[in-house]
């Protein structure tokens, strides 16, 4: 049996699954003391179930996201090696930042040696300012990590107890500024994250669970909890991924659908394209700073059940943010929930107060309560539908760098609109109608997050870049740099090498059983030609284990 | 008005002329790595857009492709031209301030008649854009400034008789480099005199002289001409490391030029120092277009003051600039009859060599000397591919500003040529109605392309 637990800011949800059947669900309030919330949720779903029957427990969480939002972490000093390119004025991060001379180029060649004198001074200044956490990031460090390692070596020599994070180990994709932010956040959150992980292990141990424990990543894959401390920030946005995967598990396979999670103040939109959740092309944006965290594409719209409604001249408008609960639940102002209450699409709260709320909005416009409610619902539906269409458009607008990619790009529109979250019931039918789609309100929608966590597949990825002219290769995810000894290195060998590394990663992560097929997600080969003679090749190979989910819910499993 | 710079980056990683040809998949690879690693696409005022395809109709608006558009263009060409058109749309509509079509394949050697590939080009991206902007948006006056080391002979030829398109090309002296044209005496036809200006620069010219030409010729001429839209044919083979050129421009020089020219749209042309120049020059141009500081962009082997201009070279260029500026300033006083002769038609013979496809073409070009409009153009072309009998082509182009007389005369000439039987292919390009006809004698078949619907 599988357990999925979503530790959100307000609620902790848990489900117990048996081969695709939901056996138990729980929803408890997330308290300051994480351990007690976890135990309460676990106890609730494990009633009468022997802990040895549990094969796997998966967590998703926004705990770390909230830590970052509230800036509850130790200061991190920054040592960066940007070299030539963008003006260094762009590198004003909100912390003590030292810019060191040195440069590596796009093929990993050192073009300016590292200035160790400057490093020395930077470390002195950081020490004087009381820092003991340092992020070190160089431009093109994923092509050659020499400079980052030199700096680490120097710091460790002087201050063995300092926490040093290197850019190339945090993310391998190209984008120096995002790598800087990602590395800083990794450095900043590591301690707190390790505390979270300890709490989780403690909770499970106390209940005698021997299962494998995983944590969901923002891209919808899972990793072993004990390995996850290497990359805490990859897990911090797993909340939205959890609900999307949950919906995927609750729908028939292969569907193209929009997932609309209508909450109190915001609604989150996600896309399933032919059954697979859409990944965001950009890394996650954390408080206005782009990172390298890969995530599912989720768009937040500032409209929810508790959004405040107001009238401006002869129009009804939505004011972003929440003033309190709906008027019918003793809140201060009219909300969409009040409109749904009047129309009989929501069944809690005081009916008369809901009518009163509509009257407040509509009287001046000579609208009856019902007419006002219809108008409000139209407004909310319009807003959400417009955002859904924008999301599809921007997906179509994504750049392509190959002819075949441009040609195969088709217009895709959903067939299904799936509603989850508190406000979904009243609105989803109308949103679907507006989009010519089938509305679906899946069972267990209120714990879709936890279901998503429970069924998420463990995924691993390896990105290999080999340059035969220089005789070197790198494995981005491992920060590994090696030499190519084989004089006949070719595309097949490059793929085989990438697979070998994937296998090795899987073994290290204890993940050899449930990996499924390995797919090649990138396969680029470039001839390096100088003076009309081919003098080498560049291979860019990406391999990954199957993404997606292990079970569909209600389908009896697979 | 948005302050954004649009970028269509289309490196065509699956398209090459041949595996070791300079125009191959690898060409923009290091540029990609650089712009990705620099994170410039995350800058709030730079917007990356997905390319779209030009239609065959858009191509037929400019080119006479022999035998048909489909036989000369690949999808990669449609994407490169389409990228420029997309950015053009957004700039005219005001949703972008300017743009950079960082695309392959290039196009500025492609002429009006296309028998094959010339100088790595089949389709002239800038010309397709110009005709599209006029048709779609009613833009009238357009300037193209070509900063490639090679003379933009294709663009020059297409607009040679067009008074509303100003074409300025500076490049390495044609006596020392392909395609061997682009001299100061090539100034446009009788009805578009001085709307073509060529600045052949001696090999070894540095940034200093290059920027002298910009400040003292290009900018004043542009100011006079007052174009509604400025296109930079952004070739980067003037760079000091380029294997095909012998010039000494730097990334800083290109950025400075871009900032001063302030074009609406830069369209990538040549540039084959794919490691030592392209990543740096492309980044510098993108930063200059978007108003960012580009002073930190530097080639690994460059230091300020590396190149010293020789005083003789600078003097020589200064004299040429003075001369050209004089021609420009006196363009309306020039005695056109004395320069070009009189008669109903102005005519000239041309020989065109297709270096990539080894085609030799002979052309006989006639321009109707119309008092009311720029006149229609007749081209008789004969191309030898070195085997079989040569292709004989008769093509008429009616400019979009044409008067109704010219339109009618051109239509007659087209019908006559169809009947005559001397030509394998007969074309009529009527830009006033956006209708493009072609006739193939062997099949006794006629095609018509009208309206902007895709033929793909
Ligand atoms: Zn030129
Ligand atoms: Zn060139
Ligand atoms: Zn006329």
Structural description of this entry:
The complex is a heterodimer of chains A (558) and B (456). With 558 residues, chain A is α/β, with parallel strands linked by helices. In chain A, a hairpin with a 2-residue loop joins strand 26 and strand 27. Chain B is of the alpha/beta class and 456 residues long. Chain B is 30% helix and 22% strand. Chain B contains 12 helices and 17 strands. In chain B, the strands form 3 sheets. In chain B, strands 2-1-4-10-9-6-7-8 form an 8-stranded parallel beta sheet, sandwiched between helices. Chain B has a 7-stranded mixed beta sheet with strand order 11-12-13-14-15-16-17. In chain B, strands 3-5 form a two-stranded parallel ribbon. The longest helix of chain B has 19 residues. The site of one zinc ion has 7 residues of chain B, from loops.
Counted by DSSP, the helix tally of chain B is: 12
Intertermini distance of chain B: 34 Å
**Ranges of chain B with pLDDT <50 over ≥5 residues?**
none
* Inertia-based shape of chain A: globular
Q: Indicate the overall shape of chain B.
A: globular
**Which ranges of chain A are low-confidence, i.e. pLDDT below 50, for 5 or more consecutive residues?**
none
Helix content of chain A: 25-40%
What share of the residues of chain A does DSSP label as strand, in percent?
25-35%
- What share of residues are in beta strands of chain B? 15-25%
Instruction: Please give the number of β-strands of chain A.
Output: 27
Bound molecules: zinc ion
The SS-based structural class of chain B is alpha/beta
| Estimated helix fraction of chain B | 25-40%
SSE succession of chain B: EHEHEHHEEHEHEEHEHEHHHEEEEHEEE
């Amino acid at each position: 049996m599988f357990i999925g637990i979503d530790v959100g800011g307000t609620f902790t949800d848990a489900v117990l699954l048996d081969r695709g059947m939901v056996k138990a669900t729980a929803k408890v309030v997330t308290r300051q003391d994480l351990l007690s919330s976890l135990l309460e949720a676990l106890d609730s779903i494990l009633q009468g179930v022997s802990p040895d029957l549990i094969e796997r427990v998966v967590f998703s969480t926004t705990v770390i996201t909230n830590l970052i939002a509230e800036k509850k972490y130790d200061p991190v000093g920054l040592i960066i090696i940007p070299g030539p390119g963008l003006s260094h004025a762009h590198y004003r991060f909100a912390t003590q930042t030292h810019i060191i001379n040195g440069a590596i180029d796009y093929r990993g060649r050192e073009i300016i040696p590292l200035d160790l004198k400057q490093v020395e001074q930077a470390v002195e200044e950081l020490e004087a300012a009381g820092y003991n956490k340092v992020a070190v990031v160089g431009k093109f460090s994923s092509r050659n990590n020499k400079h980052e390692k030199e700096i680490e070596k120097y710091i460790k020599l002087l201050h063995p107890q300092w926490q040093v994070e290197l850019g190339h180990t945090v993310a391998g994709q190209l984008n120096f500024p995002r790598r800087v932010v990602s590395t800083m956040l990794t450095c900043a959150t590591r301690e707190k994250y390790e505390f979270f992980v300890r709490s989780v292990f403690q909770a499970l141990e106390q209940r005698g669970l021997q299962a494998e424990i995983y944590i969901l990543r923002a891209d919808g894959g899972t990793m072993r909890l004990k390995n996850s401390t290497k990359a805490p920030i990859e897990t911090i946005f797993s909340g939205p991924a959890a609900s999307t995967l949950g919906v995927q598990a609750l729908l028939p396979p292969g569907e193209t659908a929009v997932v609309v999670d209508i909450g109190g103040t915001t609604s989150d939109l996600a896309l399933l394209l032919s059954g697979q959740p859409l990944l965001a092309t950009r890394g996650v944006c954390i408080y206005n700073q782009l990172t390298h965290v890969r995530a599912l594409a989720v768009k937040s719209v500032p409209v929810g059940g508790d959004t405040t409604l107001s009238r401006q001249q002869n129009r009804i408008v939505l004011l972003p943010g929440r003033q309190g609960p709906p008027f019918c639940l003793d809140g201060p102002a009219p909300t969409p929930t009040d409109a749904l209450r009047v129309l009989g699409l929501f069944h809690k709260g005081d009916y008369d107060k809901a009518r009163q709320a509509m009257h407040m909005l509509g009287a001046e416009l000579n609208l009856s309560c019902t007419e006002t409610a219809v108008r409000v619902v139209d407004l909310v539906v319009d807003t959400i539908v417009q955002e859904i269409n924008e999301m599809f458009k921007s997906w179509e607008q994504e750049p392509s760098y190959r002819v075949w990619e441009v040609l195969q790009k088709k217009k895709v529109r959903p067939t299904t609109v799936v509603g989850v979250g508190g406000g979904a019931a009243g609105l989803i039918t109308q949103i679907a109608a507006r989009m010519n789609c089938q509305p679906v309100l899946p069972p267990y929608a209120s714990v879709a997050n936890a279901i998503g966590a429970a069924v998420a597949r463990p995924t691993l990825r390896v990105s290999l870049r080999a340059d035969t002219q220089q005789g070197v290769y790198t494995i981005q995810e491992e920060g590994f740099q090696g030499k190519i000894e084989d004089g006949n290195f070719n595309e097949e060998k490059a793929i085989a090498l990438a697979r070998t590394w994937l296998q090795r990663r899987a073994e290290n992560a204890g993940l050899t059983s449930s990996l499924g097929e390995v797919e090649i997600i990138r396969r680029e080969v470039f001839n390096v030609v100088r003076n009309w003679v081919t003098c080498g090749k560049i291979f860019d190979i990406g391999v990954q284990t199957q993404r997606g989910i292990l079970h569909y819910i209600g389908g009896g499993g697979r | 008005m948005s302050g954004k710079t649009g970028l269509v980056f289309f490196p065509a990683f699956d398209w090459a002329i041949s595996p070791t040809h300079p125009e191959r998949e690898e060409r923009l690879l290091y540029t990609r790595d650089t712009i990705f690693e620099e994170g410039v696409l995350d800058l709030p005022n730079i917007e990356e857009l997905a390319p779209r395809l030009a239609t065959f109709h858009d191509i037929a608006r400019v080119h006479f492709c022999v035998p048909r558009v489909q036989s000369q263009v690949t999808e990669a060409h449609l994407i490169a031209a389409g990228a420029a058109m997309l950015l053009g749309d957004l700039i005219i509509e005001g949703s972008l301030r300017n743009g950079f079509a960082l695309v392959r394949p290039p196009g500025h050697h492609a002429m009006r008649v296309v028998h094959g590939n010339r100088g790595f080009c089949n389709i002239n991206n800038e010309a397709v854009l110009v005709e599209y902007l006029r048709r779609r948006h009613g833009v009238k006056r357009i300037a193209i400034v070509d900063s490639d080391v090679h003379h933009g002979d294709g663009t020059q030829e297409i607009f040679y008789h067009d008074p509303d398109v100003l074409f300025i090309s500076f490049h390495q002296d044609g006596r020392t480099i392909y395609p061997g044209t682009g001299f100061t005496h090539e100034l446009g036809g009788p009805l578009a005199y001085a709307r073509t200006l060529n600045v052949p620069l001696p090999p070894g010219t540095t940034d200093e002289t290059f920027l002298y030409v910009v400040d003292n010729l290009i900018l004043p001429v542009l100011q006079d001409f007052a174009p509604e839209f400025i296109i930079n044919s952004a070739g980067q083979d003037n760079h000091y490391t380029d294997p095909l050129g012998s010039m000494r421009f730097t990334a800083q020089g290109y950025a400075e030029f871009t900032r001063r020219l302030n074009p609406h749209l830069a369209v990538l042309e040549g540039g084959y120092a794919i490691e030592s120049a392209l990543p740096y020059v492309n980044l510098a141009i993108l930063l200059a277009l978007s108003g960012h500081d580009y002073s930190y962009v530097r080639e690994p082997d460059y230091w300020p003051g590396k190149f010293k201009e020789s005083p003789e070279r600078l003097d020589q260029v200064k004299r040429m600039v003075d001369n050209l500026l004089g021609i420009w300033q006196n363009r309306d006083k020039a005695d056109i009859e004395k320069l070009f002769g009189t008669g109903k038609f102005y005519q000239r013979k041309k020989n065109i060599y297709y270096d990539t496809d080894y085609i030799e073409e002979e052309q006989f070009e006639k321009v109707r000397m119309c008092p009311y409009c720029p006149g229609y153009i007749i081209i008789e072309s004969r191309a030898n591919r070195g085997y079989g009998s040569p292709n004989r082509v008769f093509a008429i182009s009616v400019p979009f500003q044409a008067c109704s007389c010219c339109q009618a005369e051109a239509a007659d000439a087209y019908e006559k040529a169809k009947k005559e039987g001397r030509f394998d292919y007969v074309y009529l390009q009527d830009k006033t109605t956006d209708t493009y006809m072609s006739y193939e004698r062997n099949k006794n078949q006629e095609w018509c392309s009208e309206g902007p619907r895709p033929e793909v």
